[in-house]
Design a protein that fits this description.
about 240 residues, 2 strands, globular, about 5% strand, mainly alpha, 9 helices
Length: about 240
């Protein structure tokens, strides 16, 4: 309690909190886009529940990881070396999560382009996505994004209360934005393809990070913002043509 009061009176702590909240919200966008696309494939009466469970799991995972912060910091320690390149548990988790995201985005793009596929490299038949399967896939990506989120938080501040507040605020923003974002994606089919492209790019970035190739986040989000602006102009153009 005393530590919290001391931090509350420290302007530096407030600046760190504001910066960390902004970072956590930005990092949460990736997670939220994946949850929105995946839950939109469920029956309408299950979509909101699945989104809230997925975001709730993200909060639980982040807080649980903060509780084991000493172990999380050690995830960056090398565990083996291949051809002179050292790999840590964080690297392996990022690579596995990136591969899963690339596979998932590629599969969804394939099915969007060919809505009635036969037997292919992705699956022999296309069953409807079940509620449990959707939650399982969300949980996998929640874990990957949560570890990256907490390691980012550790790199920005040493104060656990600041990290906890930032995580709770960021997840609350995700919860508020989840339904409008999912509805927007559902009503604009072309946005789905753009979002899948984002997931593909994020997956490749995670793989690159896992192999030690640091990709500045500013480049990624600038590309996403520019692509989003182009798509917004396309949407305005289509609406203008319909009015005419």
């Amino acid at each position: 309690m005393d530590q919290i009061l001391i931090l509350a009176a420290d302007p530096t702590a407030w600046a760190a909190l504001a910066t960390l909240i902004a970072m956590e919200v930005v990092l949460g966008i990736d997670n939220l886009v994946f949850i929105s696309i995946l839950t939109n494939k469920l029956p309408a009466h299950q979509q909101q529940r699945a989104r809230r469970i997925g975001i709730g799991l993200a909060l639980i995972l982040r807080l649980a990881l903060l509780g084991t912060i000493a172990i999380i910091v050690q995830l960056t320690a090398p565990i083996f070396e291949v051809f002179g390149k050292a790999f840590s548990w964080r690297d392996l988790i990022l690579i596995a999560g990136g591969l899963f995201l690339v596979w998932k985005a590629t599969k969804e793009i394939h099915h969007s382009v060919d809505p009635n596929p036969g037997s292919d490299v992705f699956e022999s038949k296309r069953p409807q996505l079940g509620f449990g399967a959707a939650i399982g896939q969300i949980l996998v990506l929640d874990l990957v994004f949560s570890i990256d989120s907490i390691i980012t938080a550790v790199g920005m501040t040493d104060h656990i209360p600041i990290m906890v507040i930032a995580v709770i605020v960021a997840v609350a923003v995700m919860l508020i934005a989840s339904d409008p974002l999912a509805l927007f994606i559902q009503k604009n089919p072309t946005v789905v393809m753009l979002a899948l492209g984002f997931l593909l790019m994020i997956g490749m970035t995670l793989i690159a990070e896992g192999f030690g190739a640091h990709v500045p986040k500013g480049y990624i989000y600038s590309a996403m913002a520019f692509s989003g602006l182009v798509e917004a102009l396309n949407m305005l153009s289509r609406r203008a043509q319909k009015r005419q």
